[in-house]
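so my prof wants the structure for this chain in the tokens format not the other one, which i didnt know existed until like an hour ago. anyway here's the sequence
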Amino acid sequence: MARPKDDEKRQAIRDAVIAVVIEGGLANVSISKIAKRAGVSAGTIYLYFSNKEDLLQQTYLDIKTDWFDAMFEAANSGEDSATKIRNMWFALFDFVVARPNEFLFSETVGAAHLIDTANEASISKKIRKLEGVMTNAIKDGTLAKAPVASIQAVLMAPAVQLAKTAARDKKKVKPALLRETFDIVWRGLAAS
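here's what i got, hopefully its the right format
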């Protein structure tokens, strides 16, 4: 593998850690495997990350930040709460489908609880922002009165599950199924 240019090294390292985790799980991750996959020396990795845990956490945090940013951008394109939530739901799905390996990586790292307190706080802040959209939708009568955590779980789980299946099986989800799934979820969450 050719050595990447300096400005591409961090991205090559990020792509390599994602690939190594996807292909062999967290137990398979080593700096030497990542370096080999990225076409850089192990020392180069340490220029960007203090250790393997830092590399995993920063990659996870980058992915989650991109994911939440896509959802918030979609929400901002809606004028009313229903449109904001619909846009966020489809943005979540689109992000996962467009970046399946990043999604699978974040699922693996998230399930392993490898994120330290500082990074967890950063993610929690983004989740609170997402919850704010739902809280506003409850207040304005768009969503049924229910705990925001319950609404978030019911709303997001189907999109994540459909996307996870598509990512894992490398198959596209038919747009009609996606719309029907959202409509079913929405009927359960919308205020009467």
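also thought this was worth mentioning. The chain has a mean pLDDT of 89.
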